[in-house]
Backbone:
C-alpha cells in the first residue's frame, strides 16, 4: 500500500536510544581517547604504575595495559573494542598491550579530521588497511634474525629480550637477575613450550633476590600425617603414589593444581584406592624434599622425568608488589617463548615505529589524492610510541622526535629514544630489542580496531537491556514483561 503516507515507520521500541552518522563516529572516537588516557603514562621504562581499587576495596598496582583496562570496567560499547584488543594482544603475544591501545587511539585521533570533513569511512578504512599491510611487510623485511644453531648466541638474545620486557616494570632494578631466571625456566620446557608447565608460587616475605627457580614441581605442603616431624625430609629416587583418597585429616584431595602438575611431571596415574599399587601406576622423580620457604613448608619434586616442568618461587614484600612481579614475569616468559618460536627481532624504544613512519611517509608522496593524506596520517600516528616514551620520561618530545626524524632520513633505521640520557641512540646496539611478532600483532590489531570503530555509524541501545538508567525501574520492567504476554 504505497499511498505516500508521511507517517514514519516505527521500527524500534519506544525509549530506544539511537545516534548515528558523523556525530556518532566522533563520539566513539572521543571515547577511545579517554581509554588511551588511562594507560598513556604507563608506557615504557619510565612509565608510571596505576593503583586501582575495585568495588570490594581490593587494590591492584599494575603497569600492564591489559590488566589496567580489564579492571577499569569500561561500559562504552566502542571503547570496549580497545579493551578487547589489549586483551587479545595479551593472549596472543603477551606483551605490547599498552602500545596496541595507544596506537589504536592515535589512529582514530589522526583520522578524526577526515571523518569530520565527511570523508567516507570506507575510503579511510581502505587507506589504513593498505598502510598496515605495507608496514607489516616492512617489519618482516628489516627484522633481524638470529641463528638458532648457535645456542650461546640464542641464549644471550633471549636474556636481552626478557630484560627489555622488564625494563618498564617495577622489577626493572632486578632485571638481570630475573631475565636469567626466566630464560632458564623457559629453556626447561619441551619444544612446545607449554606455559602452564612453569608454575609461579608467591611466598610473602624475604627479599626479591631470594626468589629462585626449582627444576620440577613445588607446592605448599598440603598434607601431614601423624609423626611426620620425625620422618626424613628428603628422599632420593622416590616412587610417588598419587592418591585421590583422604589418608589423614588434612589431605587435600581436591587440590586440582597439585594433582595435574604432579601427574604430568612425575608420571604415574591417580589411584582411588591403595589396594592395587603396582609399579606402573607409580610416578617417579629424582629428589623429593620438604623445605622451609619463608614461613611456609614446601614440597619439592625435583628432576621429574616425564615432563619438563619448573616452578619459580617468588619472594618479596607487599602482596600487590608480588602480584605485579608475577605479571611482569609472565610478560617476560611470553616474550622469551615468542622469541624462541620466531627468532626475529626489531629494535624498540620507538625505533621501529619511526622507521615505519618514515617509510610510509615516503610512500605516501608517491600516490595522489586523499589516500596520500590518509597514509600520511597513519605515518604520523605511529610517532605516538616514541613521543609517549619521551613524555613519560619527562623529555622534550618535540626535540627528540625531530632528531629521530632526521636520523631516520639519513638511514639510521634503528635509532630510538634513549631513556637514560634524554637523547637518541641506536637501540639495536643498545640491545633494546623486541620480537617482531609483538610489533606486527600490535600494528595489525590496532589498525583493525580503528577500522572496526570507523565502520560503526550507529549504536542502538535497547532500553531493556541497558545497564544504566534507574536500577529499580529498568529491572522491574524487564521482569514484568514475560507475564504480560
Ligand atoms: P607494552 O604494554 O606496550 O609492552 P611497556 O610499558 O612494556 O608497554 O613499554 C613498551 C615500550 O617501551 C616499547 O616500545 C619498548 O620498545 C620500550 N622500551 C622498553 N625498554 C626500553 C629502553 N630501555 N629504552 C627505550 N625504550 C624501551
Ligand atoms: Mg611491555
Residues:
Amino acid at each position: 500500500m504505497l499511498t505516500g503516507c508521511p507517517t514514519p515507520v516505527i521500527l524500534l521500541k519506544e525509549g530506544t536510544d539511537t545516534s548515528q552518522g558523523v556525530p556518532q563516529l566522533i563520539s566513539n572516537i572521543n571515547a577511545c581517547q579517554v581509554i588511551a588516557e588511562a594507560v598513556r603514562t604507563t608506557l615504557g621504562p619510565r612509565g608510571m604504575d596505576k593503583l586501582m581499587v575495585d568495588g570490594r576495596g581490593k587494590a591492584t598496582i599494575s603497569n600492564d595495559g591489559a590488566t589496567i583496562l580489564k579492571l577499569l570496567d569500561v561500559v562504552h560499547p566502542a571503547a570496549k573494542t580497545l579493551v578487547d584488543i589489549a586483551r587479545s594482544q595479551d593472549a596472543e603475544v603477551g606483551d605490547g598491550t599498552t602500545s596496541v591501545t595507544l596506537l589504536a587511539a592515535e589512529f582514530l585521533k589522526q583520522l578524526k579530521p577526515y571523518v569530520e570533513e565527511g570523508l567516507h569511512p570506507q575510503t579511510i578504512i581502505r587507506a589504513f588497511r593498505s598502510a598496515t599491510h605495507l608496514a607489516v611487510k616492512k617489519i618482516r623485511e628489516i627484522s633481524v634474525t638470529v641463528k638458532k644453531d648457535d645456542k650461546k648466541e640464542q641464549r644471550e638474545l633471549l636474556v636481552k629480550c626478557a630484560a627489555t620486557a622488564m625494563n618498564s616494570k617495577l622489577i626493572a632494578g632486578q632485571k638481570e637477575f630475573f631475565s636469567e631466571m626466566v630464560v632458564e625456566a623457559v629453556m626447561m620446557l619441551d619444544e612446545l613450550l607449554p606455559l602452564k608447565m612453569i608454575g609461579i608460587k608467591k611466598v610473602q616475605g624475604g627479599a626479591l633476590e631470594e626468589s629462585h627457580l626449582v627444576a620440577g614441581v613445588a607446592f605448599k605442603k598440603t598434607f601431614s600425617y601423624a609423626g611426620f616431624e620425625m620422618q626424613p625430609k628428603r628422599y632420593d629416587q622416590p616412587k610417588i603414589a598419587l592418591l585421590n583418597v583422604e589418608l589423614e585429616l588434612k589431605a587435600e584431595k581436591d587440590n586440582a593444581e597439585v594433582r595435574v602438575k604432579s601427574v604430568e611431571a612425575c608420571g604415574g596415574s591417580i589411584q582411588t584406592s591403595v589396594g592395587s599399587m603396582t609399579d606402573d601406576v607409580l610416578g617417579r622423580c629424582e629428589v623429593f624434599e620438604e623445605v622451609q620457604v619463608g614461613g611456609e613448608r614446601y614440597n619439592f619434586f625435583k628432576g621429574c622425568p616425564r615432563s619438563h616442568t619448573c616452578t619459580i618461587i617468588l619472594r618479596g614484600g607487599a602482596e600487590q608488589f608480588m602480584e605485579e612481579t608475577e605479571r611482569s614475569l609472565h610478560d617476560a616468559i611470553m616474550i622469551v617463548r615468542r622469541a624462541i618460536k620466531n627468532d626475529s627481532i626489531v629494535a624498540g624504544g620507538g625505533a621501529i615505529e619511526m622507521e615505519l613512519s618514515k617509510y610510509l611517509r615516503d610512500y605516501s608522496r608517491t600516490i595522489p589524492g586523499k589516500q596520500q593524506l590518509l597514509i600520511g596520517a597513519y605515518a604520523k600516528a605511529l610517532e605516538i610510541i616514541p613521543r609517549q616514551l619521551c613524555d613519560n620520561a619527562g623529555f622534550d618530545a618535540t626535540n627528540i622526535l625531530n632528531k629521530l626524524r632526521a636520523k631516520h632520513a639519513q638511514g639510521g633505521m634503528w635509532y630510538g629514544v634513549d631513556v637514560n640520557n634524554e637523547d637518541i641512540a641506536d637501540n639495536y646496539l643498545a640491545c633494546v630489542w623486541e620480537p617482531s611478532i609483538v610489533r606486527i600483532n600490535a600494528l595489525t590489531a590496532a589498525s583493525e580496531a580503528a577500522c572496526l570503530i570507523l565502520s560503526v555509524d550507529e549504536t542502538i541501545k535497547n532500553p531493556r537491556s541497558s545497564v544504566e538508567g534507574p536500577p529499580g525501574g529498568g529491572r522491574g520492567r524487564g521482569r514484568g514483561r514475560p507475564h504480560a504476554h
In short: The first strand starts at residue 17 and ends at 20. Residues 468-485 have pLDDT under 50 and may be disordered. The chain is about 50% helix and 15% strand.
